[in-house]
Amino acid sequence: MNKKLVVYILGSVLLLTVMGVYLVVGSLDQPERDAETAVSPDSSENAADSSVAVEADGDVSDATVEADMPNPFEKKVKTPLKETHMQQYIHAMSHQKVQAKEKWSFFKITDERIDFLLNQLEVNKFEHEDLYRGILKSWKEGDFSDADTDHNRIWSLQGGTIGEATGVMSEKAEETFLQEQTKESR
Predict the structure, then answer these.
(1) How far is CA 106 from CA 64, 94, 155, in A?
(2) Which are the contacts of 73, defined by CB distance < 8 A and separation ≥ 6?
(3) What dihedral angle (degrees, nearest 10) is formed by the CA atoms of 173, 174, 176, 178?
(4) 138 close to 146: Cβ distance less than 8 angstroms
(5) The pTM is what?
(6) CA distances from residue 141 to 56, 116, 144, 148 in whole angstroms, order as listed
(7) Among 47-56, 58-67, 80-89, whose mean pLDDT is lowest?
(8) φ, ψ for residue 118, nearest 5 deg
(9) Predicted confidence (pLDDT) per residue in 92-106, tens digit
């Protein structure tokens, strides 16, 4: 009987330990799951609170751009963006417009991407958000005349030492550059 009792107690302790570990491990990603489900795009109750439109002048108006809009750069990078991602995306897009000896990243400039980044400025706070907003507003209006300066300001924030922009590419040079790009990366 003593042997049965010991086996029973050890079995119970083992079972409770396994259950405890399962519960603890399962709860580790709970805040992440809560954040994902807190504002559901399907929820009509949250829809009005979670949508913001950013006009070309940077003013915020009602609805059209959602706070949970998918990341048009990389699906695996979740929102809201971190400051490093904001810098990397602007920097990589600027390579489409600037002359530089070295360019290690590239994302094609699109209205969808500009709108996404402007939206991220509304749903998150960034140390250099005025700089980002100024660059993105100019680009939204089709003004890339200062793209080299824009590039270098972001590049400096990132601690850049190689690849300083030396000017803005001609339309023909930009077209050639775009044709040579085989993949996008930051």
Answers:
(1) 28, 8, 14
(2) 89, 107, 113, 116, 184, 186
(3) 160
(4) yes
(5) 0.64
(6) 7, 15, 9, 17
(7) 47-56
(8) -60, -40
(9) 999 999 999 999 999
